[in-house]
Design a protein that fits this description.
Blueprint: E1 2-7, H1 21-27, E2 31-36, E3 45-48, H2 58-67, E4 71-72, H3 77-81, H4 86-92, E5 101-103, E6 115-119, E7 129-131, H5 136-146, E8 150-154, H6 158-162, E9 164-170, E10 173-180, E11 201-203, H7 208-225, E12 234-241, E13 247-253, H8 268-283
């Protein structure tokens, strides 16, 4: 059985977080190697990993995903989850999300407090801007500069103190969690590739309410896409706390998320490898 881990030309073997995966897959009898998406290489399964340059070539990326015989996550997930307006679908399905509106040119219904503008198609926090309360001129200029639709969300101030909690699932089952420090800060820096803001990460132990919201989001996404939760080989659910401390969904990452292997126990790559093996067996 051969598996390809798909990345991009700027990060041909990922960003380092996935370094243990090839060895873990070998341990369970799966031959794995890295590839750059669009290269034409084939395998029994292609797993999307750090394909973070797709935002500038999304149509090409979607066409490539559709051409891959067996892709994880499934190709049907990619168009939906690479457009952050999926948050509106999840809200309609009853998932507690950070209040979200879709904005385009001429938008003027800005939140009254501090808020965030982020492009609907984006990765690594590129193009996201934290806007001071009342600074609607800056907001309008940034939205116009994005050249396309964006999400507008009230900034959740608890992030400054406790960060975001990212819950990771393999094959629909919880694996581990980690915390991401506030990213939209004045001292934020991009990595050498320029593809993502460097994150400040640490391990985490999610609460019951956090796990419930995370699993509600996964179940809702699967239902919306006509899939089962177990069809998601991997998933990362990013949560923040509202003013009362209740968890809210900030993002549901089903295409190319960092999975925080360096922030959790050493057996996590083997859990991922086991999920890959199970996915291969299910398709054989």
């Amino acid at each position: 059985m051969k598996v390809l881990l798909a990345s991009c030309a700027s990060l041909p073997t990922g960003d380092g977080d996935d370094d243990a995966l090839v060895g873990a897959l070998a341990d369970v009898g799966v031959d794995a190697a890295w590839t750059v998406w669009g290269s034409g290489e084939t395998a029994d399964l292609v797993v999307l990993r750090s394909t973070w340059d797709y935002t500038d070539r999304r149509d090409e990326f979607l066409a490539w995903c559709a051409s891959v015989p067996v892709l994880a996550n499934p190709a049907a997930v990619v168009p939906w989850n690479t457009d952050k307006s999926y948050m509106l679908d999840l809200e309609r399905l009853g998932v507690p999300v950070v209040p979200t509106v879709l904005a385009s040119s001429g938008f003027a219904d800005w939140p009254t407090g501090e808020f965030v503008i982020k492009p609907t198609v984006g990765a690594g926090s590129r193009g996201a801007l934290r806007v001071a309360a009342g600074d609607f001129e800056t907001a309008a200029a940034h939205l116009a500069g994005l050249g396309g639709p964006a999400l507008v969300q009230p900034y959740q101030s608890a992030v400054d103190a406790v960060g975001e909690t990212a819950l990771v699932y393999f094959g629909g089952q919880y694996s581990h969690a980690f915390t991401k420090g506030a990213m939209l800060t004045e001292d934020a820096e991009y990595d050498e590739s320029g593809l993502y803001i460097v994150e400040r990460l640490s391990g985490a132990h999610p609460t019951g309410p956090q796990q419930r919201v995370a699993e509600d989001a996964l179940d809702a996404a699967a239902e919306h896409l006509g899939l089962r939760r177990t069809d998601f080989l991997y998933a990362r659910v990013d949560l923040v706390a509202d003013a009362s401390g209740a968890p809210l969904l900030l993002e549901l990452e089903l295409v190319e998320p960092s999975l925080g292997f360096r922030q959790t126990d050493a057996t996590a790559p083997l859990r991922f490898a086991s999920a890959v093996r199970a996915a291969l067996r299910a398709r054989s």
